[in-house]
Amino acid sequence: MATAAHQAQAPTPSQTFFASLYEVASGERVRTCLQCGMCSGVCPFGYLMDFPPSRIITALRADVFEEVLATDTVWMCVSCYACTEVCPADIPVTAGLMTRAKEELLLAGNVPTELQGALENSQRYGNPQGESPRKRADWATGVEPAVTVLGRDKRPVDVLWFVGDYPSYHPRVQLTTKALARVLNALGIDFGILGPEENSDGDTQRLAGERGLFEMLAEKNGRVFGKYQFNEIITTDPHAYNALKNEYPALGISYPVRHYTQFLADQLDQLQPLLKQEVNATVTYHDPCYLGRANGVFDEPRALLEAIPGVKLVEMSHNHATSLCCGGGGGGMWLDGFQWEKAHARLSEWRVNEAVAAGANILATACPYEPPRFEDAIKTVKEAGVLVVKDIAELLAEAL
Ligand code: SF4
Ligand code: SF4
What is the per-residue DSSP string for 82-119? Predict the structure, then answer.
């Protein structure tokens, strides 16, 4: 039986949580929080959170972290990095504080049902949608020349294209996947895909608090990478790029990786002469959180758009590092019902309004979460008029 002295020494939830932040790079900097409130002020859903980031830190200081665990509004965090971007004390608010808080909520069983389903699908099927792994390369049926599937065609390639979950399975996003295949083929790139052997990159599951699931998925992908010969990896998805670049190396899985916009921008000398068809349009580019703010890739997507004949590029009021999240990150892609119940607003609608205000008729994207989200938003924003959503790969393919 524990003595009173032992009970007095048991760490409180606040102490345990705080100690766990030391396991995150620079997590100990939470101690230096100024309580300026900028993180909570810039947070797109901060006004709805019982405990936005600065208040979580206040709760830790007051030793009442259990009050944070008793609410569910931390799940409104879409891991957009806006708070991290503005924090004057360089505290890893997104990767440390918010992600660790979600891990604790999961452990406490305080998790929205929608999210639980996506996490279970990821564990069982290797993708959050619960699709059959055998269908992962179905998008490539009919693409000419035929797409190399490494396990089937058994040959080394120059570039391993990590296609990703939504680009593989989602009917709208498959259009962008086919467009990118067309651009790669036009450039004569020797590329291959993993097809049924590819698993979810796991990054969004990690940011939704499921670190163990992330590691399981990463290790599966790492074992498959090790079976084949290639010189570098490209990704369609900024979340996969973030995982492969910043998270997989800590698990001993380390390969050169570029997002497809970086890869193509580096080949602009070869690509530009192929872009012969005019795409007469006013285009605005939405910086995805995990390409822009999280990884500093701002110029390459814009360079590709500016290379397309007839494109006039305009900026929305929030652009580059101040870009607004589409609402899909950090598990938001699997929490639309939960978010709607809390907010009665969609972040994607705010972004569509900004694109309209910028005078654009094309909203260009470079993340597979975005075309379905923005196209849904266009249906409900009456001012959206003729605005259409196109991935940069689709615009490049149209210009070929
Ligand atoms: S922005 Fe940084 S310093 Fe300011 S309250 Fe938030 S965490 Fe603290
Ligand atoms: S990552 Fe984005 S959504 Fe999450 S707390 Fe920070 S600003 Fe808010």
Answer: HHHHH-TT---IIIIIIHHHHHHHHHTT---HHHHHHH
Identify which ligand lies nearest to the alpha carbon of 73.
2
User: Does 194 contact ligand 2 (Cβ within 6 A)?
Assistant: no
User: Is there an atom of ligand 1 within 6 Å of 98 CB?
Assistant: no
Domain membership flag for residue 274: yes
Question: What DSSP character marks residue 23?
Answer: T
The yes-or-no verdict on residue 7 having pLDDT over 80 is: no
Please return the burial class of 188, using the count of CB atoms within 10 Å of its CB with bins 0-12, 13-18 and 19+.
exposed
Parent domain of 31: 13-107
Distance 354 CA to ligand 2 centre (A): 20
Ligand 1 geometric centre to CA of 87 (Å) = 5
Q: Is residue 220 part of a domain?
A: yes
Q: Is residue 119 part of a domain?
A: no
| Residue 9: per-residue pLDDT | 80
Quote the pLDDT of residue 2. 46
pLDDT for residue 54 is more than 50: yes
Q: Is residue 92 part of a domain?
A: yes
